[in-house]
Design a protein that fits this description.
By secondary structure, the protein is α+β, with helices and mostly antiparallel strands. It is built from 14 helices and 20 strands. Strand 16 and strand 17 form a beta hairpin. It is globular and about 80 Å long.
């Protein structure tokens, strides 16, 4: 146990995430791990968020070199399916063809016109430019040019759409603009080992909401990498969700996580709820996944009951066996960060993917995508959700497919971003001071960012 862990146990005796999680049984090895390496406790300058030159370097040194999540495989499941992923001024067209997935720069070889619209997805028998109708096969080979006699200089067998690296893991599609980058599996470091018990390939996107938010992409993702703010921004959550006693782990350059107990009050809560009251008010990603709440038997916890109920639902409705999964594996917020910009929550009770990136080429605005995943039904009858896009001033509660409570929490998280962005610009100090533990993963994000910016990765 290192010094940070000792401090947390002394500050929250018997009430750390590990303490709460073990009340209902032993933890699997992957959740029993704790990893908190020492860090340089320097302040983080605000110009890393506000300076255009820094943003320009990020686009060149980071976004053009990292593996980055583009979409779920369900969007490109059948031959001819396509999905457009945009980052900064770059755009990638991902296509399913006979031999698997291909990804291309979303730009015509004739006059450079975008082949498919930003953020679009759908089906197409071939790839056709909307300007002059140049056409390519799904594998990127040239198919047809109107008035082809006008282009005697063109070597048709070489007029292949320019490819971008594309690979998949756990039902997720990743792209990389760096042709010399190592394979995705190496980039993910410890993640495949940690997710050995969490197979998301049999799940699908039940809700996909995209919101334009008022802050740098790091401001956006960092709001979801700590719960230090929860008692003040989300006070209604403190009675039923742990926060400042969460566990934070840093495993490698690209992977960190936080573990948050559900149906377990925050240390800041002023209420004392019974186990039944905790069960009745417990937060899950989508209440429909669980159904009606039952009674808490004598000697059991709300967490145990919810896990049992969810295991039963998973078996009866989806044919999935979670009998060997621990209580926290079923219901807790197990949130993994994959550098630079995604958070993956694998527990069935809160199965999400959250994605953050620059909004176009604007350092002061970001795009936040939230995917809610559900298991594919036993009968195979499901419909992948279309993306619902909302603006900076729109509420998540306006999206019918979203759980109302989760939507209101996301509104609180994104509303504060404008205040933070404006405060960074007006700061007399010019830097932020991060906590040693609860905000350690934010500091770690900047440590890894520096390695890319300085050419050490």
């Amino acid at each position: 146990m290192n010094d940070i862990q000792k401090v947390m146990r002394e500050r929250y005796p018997g009430n750390t995430w590990a303490d709460v999680a073990r009340r209902d049984g032993e933890l699997p090895d992957v959740l029993a791990l704790q990893s908190n390496p020492e860090q340089d406790l320097r302040d983080i300058p605000f110009d890393r968020y506000t300076d255009q030159a820094f943003f320009d370097r990020e686009m060149e040194q980071v976004w053009k070199r990292v593996w980055q999540f583009a979409c779920r495989e369900e969007y490109v499941a059948e031959k001819g399916d396509f999905f457009v992923y945009d980052i900064g001024r770059l755009s990638v067209l991902i296509v399913r063809q006979d031999s698997g997935l291909k990804a291309f720069y979303n730009s015509c070889l004739h006059r450079g016109t975008k082949l498919k619209g930003s953020g679009s997805c759908g089906w197409s028998a071939s790839i056709v430019c909307p300007f002059h109708n140049w056409e390519w096969n799904l594998d990127g080979s040239l198919k047809n040019i109107p008035c082809d006699f006008e282009f005697p200089q063109l070597e048709r067998d070489k007029a292949h759409l320019v490819e971008v690296r594309v690979e998949t893991w756990n039902g997720m599609v990743f792209v990389n603009f760096d042709g010399e980058a190592g394979p995705l599996i190496d980039y993910l470091e410890v993640l495949p080992e940690h997710f050995a018990n969490w197979d998301l390939t049999g799940w699908y996107v039940a809700s996909h909401v995209r919101k334009h938010v008022p802050g740098n992409w790091k401001v956006a993702i960092e709001a979801f990498m700590e719960a230090y703010h929860t008692p003040y921004v989300h006070p209604e959550m403190t009675n039923v969700v742990s926060d400042q006693n969460m566990q934070h782990d840093i495993f490698s350059d690209h992977v960190s996580r936080d573990l948050c107990a559900m149906a377990s009050p925050s240390p800041t809560s002023k209420k004392s709820l019974t186990e039944q009251e905790l069960l009745d008010t417990m937060l899950v990603g989508d209440g429909k996944m669980v159904g009606e709440r039952s009674k808490v038997p004598e000697g059991k916890t709300a967490r145990w009951v919810m896990a049992e109920q969810l295991r039963k639902q998973m078996s009866e409705t989806y044919g999935l066996d979670y009998s060997r999964h621990s209580v926290p594996e079923m219901i807790d917020s197990l949130k993994y960060h994959v550098f630079p910009n995604i958070l993956v929550y694998p527990a069935p009770g809160l199965c999400l993917v959250q994605q953050f990136r620059p909004d176009g080429y604007d350092r002061d605005r970001a795009i936040f995508d939230q995917y809610v995943l559900h298991p594919k039904p036993k009968d195979g009858d499901f419909e992948v959700a279309e993306m619902h896009e909302i603006g900076e001033d729109d509420s998540f509660t306006s999206v019918e497919s979203m759980d109302p409570f989760l939507a209101s929490v996301l509104d609180q998280d994104t509303d504060i971003m404008r205040w933070q962005r404006e405060g960074m610009y007006t700061s007399g100090k010019g830097a932020e001071t991060l906590s040693i533990y609860q905000e350690a993963r934010i500091r770690h994000l900047h440590d890894t960012l520096d390695k890319y910016m300085e050419g050490r990765k």
